[in-house]
Write a structure and sequence with these properties.
mainly alpha
């Protein structure tokens, strides 16, 4: 009897979809882990977890009905993902677009083209991961802004610093703020968390505006402080410490600080009062 029930479960389409989804997520996280980008891996892991949670919360109300064309297109996308993934050996922009393509393919297999609107929140989250860090630089010169603010921090702390473009010059050394050190990765990471937060929790229009702004400002200020620290370490001739805070665990610590600050804001400014408001509405 148990074996018959197990066979029935295996034959149900939703369990096949669950297996395919698990395989695509595992494949993508494996590819992401190979490029040694801790921030990107952590962001992708978080976003996949949020998407899985949102789907699980609403799985009872979702409509599972797909057609031949939608199923064929979804299966073709999965085949494309598998084919492309087999040839990726390092960083590739395709790694960022894979979550969205996977989400589209799974939604088509599950609910067809007419049912895509059911997954707009999840697809929006996955589409956000496709934004490359260089995209921000098209609109804003983040490196120059970071250099200016880092110079301001150093000057405020009493250091003699001179700035030439993206170059910070101290008494015994200098650092150049390239695009990779400008904080765009942290900004995108926290802005993504802001998107997730706004989709998961009820907020007012004002909060929808403030939350992304706080995420951007928190990431920018914390990274500027990190750049200021790197400039001081260069001036003090501390190459090992510079390497630690530039590329080592130290860079991750600053990312965690930015996330912690943003999390505190969301808790004290928005989430803390929600249970009281809910109790008031129930009364």
């Amino acid at each position: 009897m148990t074996e018959i029930n197990w066979l029935k479960h295996v034959q149900e389409p939703k369990y096949w979809l669950l297996g395919i989804a698990s395989g695509l997520i595992a494949l993508h996280l494996t590819l992401t882990s190979r490029i040694n980008d801790t921030d990107l891996f952590g962001t992708m892991l978080l976003f996949w977890g949020v998407v899985a949670f949102l789907i699980w919360e609403r799985h009872g109300s979702l409509t599972f009905e797909s057609g031949v064309f939608a199923s064929f297109f979804g299966a073709s996308l999965i085949a494309l993902i598998l084919l492309k993934s087999s040839s990726i050996s390092g960083y590739d922009l395709f790694i960022r677009t894979t979550p969205f393509l996977s989400g589209i393919s799974l939604a088509l297999l599950a609910s067809g083209t007419k049912g895509l609107k059911q997954y707009w929140q999840e697809l929006l989250i996955l589409a956000y991961t496709a934004i490359p860090p260089g995209f921000i630089g098209v609109f804003v010169d983040v490196a120059t802004l970071t250099a200016k603010f880092s110079a301001f921090i150093l000057h405020y702390l009493g250091f003699e610093v001179m700035r030439k473009g993206i170059l910070l010059i101290l008494e015994n050394g200098s650092v150049e703020v390239y695009h990779g050190c400008s904080g765009v990765n942290v900004i995108l990471q926290l802005l993504g968390m802001a998107v997730v937060f706004l989709l998961m929790f009820p907020t007012t229009l004002g909060q929808k505006i403030v939350v992304p702004l706080v995420a951007i400002i928190s990431a920018f200020v914390v990274n500027a402080a990190r750049v200021a620290l790197l400039a001081v370490l260069v001036s003090l001739s501390q190459p090992e410490a510079f390497k630690y805070w530039h590329l080592g665990t130290g860079s991750v610590i600053f990312s965690m600080i930015a996330v912690f600050i943003f999390g505190l804001f969301c808790w004290f400014a928005i989430l803390k009062d929600q249970p009281q408001n809910n109790e008031g509405q129930n009364c």
